[in-house]
Design a protein that fits this description.
Layout (H helix, E strand, L loop, with lengths): L34 E2 L10 E3 L21 E6 L4 E6 L5 E3 L2 E7 L10 E8 L2 E11 L4 E4 L5 E3 L5 E8 L12 E6 L5 E4 L5 E5 L8 E7 L26 E6 L15 E5 L8 H4 L3 E6 L5 E4 L2 E3 L48 E5 L4 E5 L4 E3 L25 E5 L12 E3 L2 E2 L5 E2 L6 E3 L9 E2 H4 L2 E20 L11 E6 L5 E6 L7 E17 L4 E11 L5
Antiparallel strand pairs: 1-8, 2-11, 3-4, 3-7, 5-6, 6-11, 7-8, 8-9, 9-10, 12-15, 13-14, 14-17, 15-16, 16-22, 17-21, 18-19, 18-22, 20-21, 23-34, 24-30, 25-28, 26-27, 29-34, 30-33, 30-34, 31-32, 31-33
Length: about 550
Amino acid sequence: MRRSMKCPAFVAFVVIGTVGCSGDRSHSPSASALIQDANHLDGNAFFVWLPPLVTQDAPAEQVFSQQLRPTVTISNLCSGQVIRTLSGADVQIADAAYHANWHTPDDNLDPSCTYRIAVQTGSRQLGVVDVDVVDDGRELKNVDTDEFIALLDDRTLPIKFFIGVGSQCERVDSDCGEGTAQPDQNTTIVTTHGQAGVFIPAGAVDQPVTIIVESSDDRPCIAGLLEPVFSGNIGPVGNSCYDLHTEPPLSEINAAGKFNTKVTVGICAETGSLDHATRDLLQIFQLHIGADPELRALNNERAPFLSCDPSSPQFLGSRRSKLGNFVASLGSLVLPRPLFARTTVALDVGAGGQTDMFSRFTWALPSLLDLNFDQAPDLSSLLPGTAVNSVYSRLGVTFSRSSPLSLCPGTWVYTNDYGLLGSGVFGFHSGQNNISVCPLGVASDFSQYGFGVIKATFAIPAAQACISATPTGYHGLFPPPGGVAFIEALDANGNVLSRTESTTQRVQQLLCVAGTGIAAVRFAGKGSAYAIFDNLSWTPARGNQ
């Protein structure tokens, strides 16, 4: 449990008004707030001054936030000027606390003035404490408590403070992760419960920036996402709805207003009793809120920094799937070593998505999956001649073929760029891969009788499937006119549910079949006619939970 914010035990020194309890962690103290931290004047619930500045201990129930890069400023309240700034290497970590040293003789302190020590991360102030100069600068005094603070022999004041994980988040009861991303190093930030995190590669930011990951209890997490969605529980445990943002905003850090290179966001998904095949198709969806709101389905990457429990059915684990293209049908909606927040074993079972900006993220089943045969699910290029029988299995599709006696026997299904050139003439290196029963070196068009049919089998039932087909007619010295392509939808027993045929025009045409419980589709040039096929897409049937 994290420490709750407290009302101050004594407020006699507050000059203007009465300071009450508040949940606003970005609250700036007035000039009369002589000490502000988790135990004084409603300060940040995750920030505590430590001796010798204030006699109190760090909260034992909180997790030390060791990835922040706090800045300490010292101001002369007589002049209002900042006389000393300690940051970077000046602020060290030891014994689960931040340490900085103020060598007071360097700043010619005025005994008639009060000096304010403040700590901030990015643009967020965490705490302040005021001190007076006494005994000709050989001692300082805590203005609030009147306790004398002994300096070191060289008149150095040790400044020590504790920051707990949660200091940067808006709610004390959220699953929070925080840290500072540096331009020249990899940064991994994981939430306290290990359920969400982000990997930011070196070079992604131009300046140091604070990264904040926080669970959200808003439901729906992202309005407009089709079921099934998996935004999880309300509260810090089992939640898979997360907001990620930077302080200051990326627009103030990078010229383009986004990360220079893509970062990996990871979230554990609570999937209940969802079957394994459907779990493998889940994607992280991102709602970017801005001038032009945009809903994205992220191409997935491994997220080994997560601690999703593979033995627990409520978490999406051991998946490592890399899903395909963005979901086109959803449209726009408004609405260097990993450092963990808690000592935890990093299991290589998480899955995440790559993005170039932050906003809100959650899990859902995509409404449309596309296979273009030019790229694998991880977006790497597929070379012409690649066998693709199981290449797209992580997208829920496997391929097989019937094998009549032909020029291209066997069981393999290939990518093949021996297709149509601009004028309708066949040739190598057409500039795009098609799917074919023939390997590279043989034309990619094929017929049902001469070469067989290709069958695409879906891991979960589909509601619709489409493929692009280009009829190429009959082959021979004196080919007759006509010739079409077809696609058929099959149920789990191999029965035909529906069938669509192309026209005889020698142009690319989109052929679609729809039905209840489509287990597979098969396609070819009809009979002895030939056709070229490309760009298979399919829509998973809803309600497969």
